[in-house]
Design a protein that fits this description.
The protein has helices at 10-19, 30-33, 46-63, 102-112, 179-185, 187-202; strands at 2-5, 26-29, 70-81, 122-132, 138-149, 165-167, 172-173. With 205 residues, it is α/β, with parallel strands linked by helices. It has a seven-stranded mixed β-sheet with strand order 2-1-3-4-5-6-7. The structure holds inosinic acid.
Amino acid sequence: MRIIVATNNKGKAKEFKEVLSDISVEVLTLKDIGMVSDPEENGETFAENARIKAMDVYEKLKAAGEEKDTIVMADDSGLCIDFLGGEPGVKSARFMGHSTPYNEKNRAILDLLKGARDGDRGASFVCHVCTVLPDGRVIDAESEMRGSIAEEAKGGEGFGYDPIFYVPEYGKTGGELTPEEKNAVSHRGKVLRKVREFLCREMNL
Ligand code: IMP
């Protein structure tokens, strides 16, 4: 059995490998297997987009007769900011354009929240993981990490919006957390542990 993580995002791939490191299954990314998959994410929810990504890879494997003994997992995730009515949400990766560096995106969000007081800066990271089993069955799971938008960007760890997301459990931004600290409380860490538990029970991994 192997797990293929349907992502081109290095930060996500690293966290999948870390959280799933203690099961006796090889965890591979698209890059590891030389597969190209970049379907249009035209869903309106995290669940729809996660399924689009997972099914694209599953269908490609199936067409090549390589879906046996393979579990495909994809996540769709994003930052939902209360003050912005839940934006950028499912559009987090596309906010200000895919190729805009995150220090610019983060600065723009801090500017948008300039008038927001402490109690108005609440935000959640959401992560939906879609898992496709070798026989085509689909398992959905979702978790979130609640926090707030910091007053300034801090830290060089993690990826994406981590430097501006204040994590109350540690009193630091996501960018200041070690990978172990982040995985222990993050949206992705929590949902992956749920899926890992399911796979260990149902698939005897
Ligand atoms: P997508 O799931 O590929 O559409 O991209 C999700 C986007 O949400 C990422 O590119 C980041 O901008 C943001 N994001 C999701 N999870 C995290 C995280 O753990 N830290 C920082 N940013 C994240």
